Amino acid sequence: MCQLLAMNSKHPADIGFSFAGFRARGGLTDDHIDGFGIAYFEPTGLRLYCDDKAAMDSPLAELVSQTRTKATTTLVHIRKSDDDLLSNAHPFTREIWGEAWVFTHNGKMTIKDAPDSDPIKKESAHYYAPIGDTDSEFAFCYLLNRLKERFEYKPDDQTLHAFLTTQCRFLADYGLFNCLLSNGEWLLGYATTLLFYVTRQAPFGTATLIDINKTIDFAAVNDADDIITVFATTPLTDDEDWQQLAVNECIVFANGQRVHQNLPPAPEYLSIEEGLEIAKNA
Amino acid sequence: MCQLLAMNSKHPADIGFSFAGFRARGGLTDDHIDGFGIAYFEPTGLRLYCDDKAAMDSPLAELVSQTRTKATTTLVHIRKSDDDLLSNAHPFTREIWGEAWVFTHNGKMTIKDAPDSDPIKKESAHYYAPIGDTDSEFAFCYLLNRLKERFEYKPDDQTLHAFLTTQCRFLADYGLFNCLLSNGEWLLGYATTLLFYVTRQAPFGTATLIDINKTIDFAAVNDADDIITVFATTPLTDDEDWQQLAVNECIVFANGQRVHQNLPPAPEYLSIEEGLEIAKNA
């Protein structure tokens, strides 16, 4: 299993504070040590680093810690798996309609083991195919193949988000599917077990990380009109109002604000303990 | 204009020595300061970094200098352009037939200005489209679109290299087209002005960089059966036997050795001065 972190904001923002706590889970406070990756949608393009090393040991993760890179959307992944192959490190990226899209996933799925007659295999690899051998990358390629088959040109965001919700629900039938997806303009989150978010905006307060001893005063580092939403597998701070995604909820943020939400009828919320237990047994 | 560097070898090898000299051209001995990028095909996957900063200033380039990363194929680019957009930084990558391919280019082309009725525009964007706005990325997407249209599955290498030679010749009609292309197994070089290579193998000698004060004894760092070929826009050392590609020559290396060569009848070789002058006036 792995853990996810992401940020989407109105203005380019630095993920440094949240990353400091999250990074610790890659070898210090938790054992997601089989890879690390980060994707920044900067104002002039995508910057993406992947490493087969643990976040706590990775020179790239150290560079990330020392650099105040500002981006409107940032996605981070720490990996726990049976292998540490570089080709299996998240985030994954592909180009669609001339845009760079980035995907990162947490969960165990059964796509690779599905028979060739299964819908997910039958309709698969026309435009996109996985390079590594993870179910995660297969799921990303599946999403993109469906999109490109259905839409020759990029549809409007509302159509796109509704279509993506349907496809994520389909993928969720194949196992644990907590994912984050972005084209740099919007950030989509989908959960089948654990995914939380918090929106930071004026009046800004302070926050204290759970994993390491660090407190920040957001008022000192943000402008009054900043709006920043952070996603994480489990909350990174113990003094903010983190919202949980329901099982099979799909949510999209742009400019730090929610622009799409699809909540199942009678939404169900797992406790963190239940979610971690499911992950452990997967 | 930009400059290119690449290495292809029988066993994973460290590009550090060649990179030390090449990096200097990104702000110290030359002015290719509008971006830097490197792609390593490591044994377990592709590692790719792009930066909008000059190689001499880039923290990523510094990390590359300090890390002895070993790869069977490595491609490096230093950029000189009118912009320093991250989305325009080389090397570019796309997935085709489940493989990561990497492309880097030096030269000024006229693809973007071509009318929509031009063959290069008419047949363009079905599978792949550029994300940034360089002719270089457009040319890469053009190559991949032709490949994917022509071959549903990856053909044998001989067929592939012959097809790529033809497509490179076609692209060379649109301006200066010095490029390097790799899928990690082989490394293709095509030149319309300047591109040189040297093969280092037993008995290994010493080499001295032109751009900085550094000498290496290859016998001390290589095994007897190592074979390593290095490409560069102009030679990096002044005491090795660099071979020049003829105008419109296409050459492919695998395991450090030449596996394909297509030389025009009556091959023409530009002097370095002529080549640099053409680049300057482009």
TrEMBL record, chains A, B:
Q: Which CDD domains match?
A: YafJ
Give the top-rank taxon of the lineage listed in the UniProt record for this protein: Bacteria
Q: Does the entry feature the keyword Secreted, yes or no?
A: no
Q: Which UniProt keywords apply?
A: Glutamine amidotransferase
Name the Gene3D superfamilies for this protein: Glutamine Phosphoribosylpyrophosphate, subunit 1, domain 1
PROSITE patterns per the UniProt record, alphabetical:
GATASE_TYPE_2 (PS51278)
Show where the Glutamine amidotransferase type-2 domain sits. Answer: 2-282
Cite the InterPro entries for this sequence. EgtC-like, GATase_2_dom, Ntn_hydrolases_N
Task: Read off the SUPFAM superfamilies from this record.
Answer: N-terminal nucleophile aminohydrolases (Ntn hydrolases)
Q: Which PANTHER family does the record match to this protein?
A: GLUTAMINE AMIDOTRANSFERASE, GLUTAMINE AMIDOTRANSFERASE YAFJ-RELATED
| Protein name, UniProt field | Class II glutamine amidotransferase
Where does this protein come from, organism-wise? Answer: Psychrobacter aestuarii
